[in-house]
Amino acid sequence: MTVLLLNMEKQMQKLPEAVQLIEKASMMYLENGTPDTAAMALERAGKLIENVDPEKAVQLYQQTANVFENEERLRQAVELLGKASRLLVRGRRFDEAALSIQKEKNIYKEIENYPTCYKKTIAQVLVHLHRNDYVAAERCVRESYSIPGFSGSEDCAALEQLLEGYDQQDQDQVSDVCNSPLFKYMDNDIATVDTWHIEIPVVQLLRTCFVTDSMLSWA
């Protein structure tokens, strides 16, 4: 067992070096006009390093997304942005997570996947409230009214109730929204890598809202 652990430790120590080599290779692929291969290499590097250095993995996933976006392959780009968003939330890097989710949302809007925009809005609002930024959360919902179908959706109604409860510091109302099936169980039919939950304090005394993996990966 001790030998096995030592071997595992040695392999983990080699990962950063391996990732660096993959990054260099991806640059060569780009220079040689093979962006698909470059993107595959960068994504592979992100997967390799994700459990060891999540911050580096975020950077690699974002680089991969940029390659796909430059090639106008938006569906692939937004998938990689989603991976970056989840890691940012896990790491409680909420300022960056809010920006990343907004980028996802913009792409989903561009490809006219409006229902996913609604779900990304929920994730955005919870992240903003975890940052104690009610203004940003409210603005996020207000700006989403321009998305076709959002204003009449159950997602919109729930978010309006959540923001109202937050503004009035009504714990019961906030708890009811956060414990509703829409928030707790939405899109559980979507296959996810894991089922992690990040606790989101909506007001200082509340600990009932979560950003779930499905909220961030729903598509």
TrEMBL record:
<dbReference type="InterPro" id="IPR000744">
    <property type="entry name" value="NSF_attach"/>
</dbReference>
<dbReference type="GO" id="GO:0006886">
    <property type="term" value="P:intracellular protein transport"/>
</dbReference>
<dbReference type="Pfam" id="PF14938">
    <property type="entry name" value="SNAP"/>
</dbReference>
<dbReference type="InterPro" id="IPR011990">
    <property type="entry name" value="TPR-like_helical_dom_sf"/>
</dbReference>
<keyword id="KW-0931">ER-Golgi transport</keyword>
<keyword id="KW-0813">Transport</keyword>
<comment type="similarity">
    <text>Belongs to the SNAP family.</text>
</comment>
<dbReference type="GO" id="GO:0016192">
    <property type="term" value="P:vesicle-mediated transport"/>
</dbReference>
<keyword id="KW-0472">Membrane</keyword>
<protein>
    <recommendedName>
        <fullName>Gamma-soluble NSF attachment protein</fullName>
    </recommendedName>
</protein>
<dbReference type="GO" id="GO:0016020">
    <property type="term" value="C:membrane"/>
</dbReference>
<keyword id="KW-0653">Protein transport</keyword>
